[in-house]
Every structure is written in C-alpha cells, then in structure tokens.
Amino acid sequence: MDKKEVLIWIEPFAAEMGKFNECLVKGVGMNIIAVSTKKTIFPTIIIPDGGQYAEYVQLAAGWNILVETGISLGIDLINQPGQGKWGMNIYRNSFIYLFPLPSSNKREGV
User: Fold this and answer.
1) Side-by-side strand order, sheet with 5-10
2) DSSP assignment string, the chain
3) pLDDT tens-digit profile of 28-64?
4) Cα 31 to chain center, whole Å?
5) Burial of residue 93 (number of CB atoms within 10 Å: 0-12, 13-18, 19+)
C-alpha cells in the first residue's frame, strides 16, 4: 500500500477505524473513503440500510464505485494483466476496495 492508492471501506467497524486512520492515513498517506449506513471518521458515502438485503446493497455500492472509478480513469477493466491490487478484498467481513492510481495504462480515446 502506498499514498498513490485510495481505499474504499464498506461498512467499517468502529473499533478498527482509529487503527486504519493511524496506520494508513497518517502513516502511509493514503486516502480512505467509507461507504456506510452511518457517518464515519473518514469521508463517507451514506447508503440505505437495506434490511435483510444490506450485504447486497453494500456489495452493489462498492462494485459501482469500482467500475465508475475505473471508467473515469480510463482503465481497461477487462484486460488488466499484472495489475495486482485492483479489485475487492474482504477483511473481517468488511469489503475493502483498493484503487491504484495509474499513470500509463489509460485507454486510448478516453
């Protein structure tokens, strides 16, 4: 992880936000954006609770951000050999999306 990446954290746990803030924001210099049903210590995109479908709403919101960010950056989301961290990871039942900020893999004409 480095300061050129942005972490999108879906429904972060209150008990772990402080450690992520200390290690990644203050230590590494990364940006963290939360997607949650409630306000967090990070810039937050508020989503509806979703009731029994809450996990689906969270997953859909995260993938929508992933796809829209890739398209906006001109990244070919289908043909990304060797790009490593692009995509979704799961950390203690909380979705974490890592976005490398590319410098030279933009699609032509975008």
Assistant:
1) 44-46, 31-36, 5-10, 94-100, 87-91
2) --TTEEEEEES--HHHHHHHIIIIIIII--EEEEEESS--SS-EEE----GGGHHHHHHHHHHHHHHHHHHHHTB-SS--TT--S-EEEEETTEEEEEEE--SS-BPTT-
3) 999 999 999 999 999 999 999 999 998 888 888 888 8
4) 10
5) exposed
* Whether the predicted model's global pTM rises above the 0.90 cut: no
Pairing outcome for strands 44-46 and 87-91: unpaired
For the beta carbon of residue 97, count every other beta carbon within 10 angstroms.
Answer: 21
Beta bridge partners of residue 100, listed in sequence order: 5
Question: Rounded distance, CA 84 to CA 16, Å?
Answer: 25
Structure tokens at 34: 């939360």
């989503």: which residue's tokens?
Answer: 47
